[in-house]
Amino acid sequence: GDMIGTLSEVTGRVALEGLRRRLRESPDGRKLLEERPIISTNAIDPRALAKDSPPGSFGHAYATFMVKHHFDADDRSPVALVDDEELAYVLLRYRQVHDFWHVLAGLPPTLLGELALKWFELAHTGLPMTALSALVGPLRLSPAQRAKLRAVYVPWALAQGRRTNDLLAVHYEAHFHTPLDDLRAQLHFSPAPK
Fold this sequence. Notes:
The protein is mainly alpha-helical and 194 residues long. It is 62% helix and 0% strand.
């Protein structure tokens, strides 16, 4: 995780500038850049969120995902090598919304699920680090998993990455009570095929 994080910081400046430009072009993106919300266990307690969010809601699905997989929002690496404060926030936000994207996509945090999400992130963000993960990661898959990645997940990821609204500009924290399917519809986001 830390080496990938470092790689994203030293290779992604042009892509980060493009992501910042996209954020500045939308009211929601500008609001995120102004407010700079941080996703942390102090801000979002998954166990409390599971109790507070109705079943079928985005918040309930996110809380269930985090608890089931023993994930902690504080586990994301801080940004250390990006000297522009606003670009550093864009990269931090990208890292912090990763688990939200797992929930939207309906992808488990398995190697195959992570690679499918990396292909989506490549199409959606253009960050160079996602290309490295998407191209090298499949070497660790079985032949059947590689075939499924190529035939099922890559076509979904490339199409979805271009089609969906800007997922970086979403203030997910404001949608915890929104039904998951409604949020997907609002974002023009179709979950990954099973």
